[in-house]
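Saturday, quiet lab. Running sequence design on the structure tokens for the scaffold JK sent over.
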């Protein structure tokens, strides 16, 4: 029994360690880009106007330090519309891209997923802005805001190398723990049973994955991505979870826009509904990732 457990731990540790160089290099590039373009990215989304959902969706697919959190601040300050924030939340992928790159997932698969998230984010954002104007009959009142980025979330002050190293260590630990769990699960349960589990049942899988994605932490995207790569999670459920997953952006939204709790809850409910719908459609339609 001890030997069996040690084999699982050793395999999980080796699987995680081999990803470290790729993860660090990916995060190093991402952090460098963020430090060079972060303020300009926020300036672009602030000036987007009615095209906000499209701009927000495009910017959201590029993993950036605390971008979803910064967008929540912009929304709370009246600088962007609800549709623009929704587009950012839906298109952002948190840790999916670094893990896919480190696991050598085919480029075409990555581009398909990012393309779907961009399209869904933009369409859903425009739809929400339309509903907001027609049903609520209220326009966004634009005003000034000084707190555009929560340093407690984006760690921009650490520097490129230190921030990349911190991200790498944190995500490697997440990956190890999740891989350890999945390896133990797969060792005890035949893969055929796992692939036929509730997570791979149309609608049920999407409903569960969507709730998992709402966890306001990067661990959610790590779990969803790893489960998809291990074959435990279907493509539709994975897409749903990655659409609902906005990292700490949701926490910042409720903190900075705390006077409008019903508004926040309504937006999250809309994101959840849209995410489940598109996940189910991916399972039904003959679309291969």
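Result came back. Writing it out in full:
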């Amino acid at each position: 029994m001890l030997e069996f457990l040690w084999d699982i731990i050793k395999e999980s540790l080796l699987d995680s360690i081999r990803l470290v160089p790729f993860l660090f290099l990916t995060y190093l590039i991402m952090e460098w880009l963020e430090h060079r373009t972060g303020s300009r990215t926020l300036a672009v989304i602030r000036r987007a106007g009615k095209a906000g959902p499209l701009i927000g969706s495009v910017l959201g697919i590029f993993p950036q330090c605390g971008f979803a959190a910064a967008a929540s601040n912009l929304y709370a300050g009246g600088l962007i519309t609800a549709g623009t924030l929704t587009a950012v939340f839906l298109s952002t992928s948190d840790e999916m891209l670094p893990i896919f790159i480190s696991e050598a997932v085919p480029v075409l698969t990555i581009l398909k997923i990012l393309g779907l998230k961009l399209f869904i984010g933009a369409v859903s954002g425009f739809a929400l802005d339309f509903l907001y104007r027609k049903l609520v009959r209220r326009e966004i009142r634009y005003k000034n805001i000084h707190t555009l980025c929560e340093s407690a979330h984006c760690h921009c002050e650490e520097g490129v190398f230190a921030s990349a190293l911190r991200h790498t260590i944190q995500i490697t630990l997440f990956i190890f723990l999740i891989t350890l769990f999945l390896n133990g699960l797969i060792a005890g349960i035949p893969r055929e049973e796992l692939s036929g589990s509730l997570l791979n049942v149309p609608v049920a899988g999407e409903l569960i994955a969507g709730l998992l994605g709402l966890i306001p932490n990067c661990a959610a995207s790590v779990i969803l991505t790893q489960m998809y790569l291990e074959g435990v999670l279907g493509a539709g459920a994975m897409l749903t979870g990655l659409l609902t997953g906005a990292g700490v952006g949701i926490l910042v939204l409720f903190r900075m826009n705390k006077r409008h709790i019903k508004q926040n809850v309504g937006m999250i409910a809309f994101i959840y509904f849209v995410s489940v719908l598109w996940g189910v459609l991916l399972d039904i339609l003959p679309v291969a990732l």
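Notes for JK: The longest helix spans residues 107-136. The chain is about 75% helix and 0% strand. Ask whether to fix the surface positions before the next round.
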